[in-house]
Amino acid sequence: MVFPSERKELEAARRADGRLPPGQSLTLKWPVLHEGSIPTFDPKRWRFSVGGLVENAFELTWGEFRDLPHTSVTADFHCVTTWSKFDNHWDGVLFRVIAAKAAPKPEAQFVIVKAEGGYTTNVPLEDLMRDDVLFADQHKPEPLTPEHGGPLRLVVPHLYAWKSAKWVQSLEFIAEDKAGYWERVGYHMRGDPFQEQRYREN
Q: How many whole angstroms separate alpha carbon 126 and alpha carbon 38?
């Protein structure tokens, strides 16, 4: 159990070491936030597809995805609703592994991430190619639960968490930026928490 005074000390430490973005507060819990209902996962029917401006469009079954090389990443997680959860231990497939298999064409500069229920978000390819961005199927020490995006969610630690789409199904590589679900209703096109890029300027 962590007492309020200890939580405040932890928050002050994270602010002092530059890990807590402006306007954020530390949480020791993991709030559940998403649009729509939690989808049902059927491993026999699940598919992950990659297309758009790539040399090698492909589709993977759940078994094929699980056979890809997995990596562990420890990273912070910042929600646009102002909470930050530190030192999350993720396990999954680096985005760079998927990109290498797809071989994006030179004109591909952005990716539309598509998820269950019609949710989409846009992320610059440069951001996705960082060495801590992955498709997570585990949040250690526990499996990645459905309410937190299981069986598979994208994790982009350096951007606000709405970019870390839950229940990912497919990727589309594109040449020009295009707004996703939350971006169309006013959220920032990139979403850097350290720049407080919460909403687009009108």
A: 30
Domain made up of 40-72+88-195: CATH architecture:
Alpha-Beta Complex (3.90)
Report the C-alpha gap between 94 and 99 in whole angstroms.
Answer: 9
Q: What single-letter amino acid sits at 172?
A: E
Distance of CA 29 to the CA centre of its chain: 18
Going along the chain, which residue ranges are E strands? Answer: 25-26, 47-52, 58-61, 71-78, 83-94, 110-115, 120-124, 134-140, 142-143, 153-155, 168-174
Put simply, whether the predicted model's pTM sits higher than 0.85 gets the answer yes
- Contact call for residues 192 and 158 (beta carbons, < 8 A): yes
- Kindly provide the residue ranges of all beta strands, DSSP E only, lying in 8-54, ordered along the sequence: 25-26, 47-52
Strand-pair category, 83-94 with 134-140:
antiparallel
Q: For 125-186, where are the E strands, in sequence order?
A: 134-140, 142-143, 153-155, 168-174
122 dihedral zone (left: phi>0; alpha: psi -120 to 50; beta): beta
**Amino acid identity, residue 86?**
F
- Locate 151 and state its tokens: 């069986």
Q: What is the pLDDT of residues 32-43, one digit of tens each?
A: 767 777 889 999
- What stretches of 17-106 show up as alpha helix (H) in DSSP? 62-66, 95-102
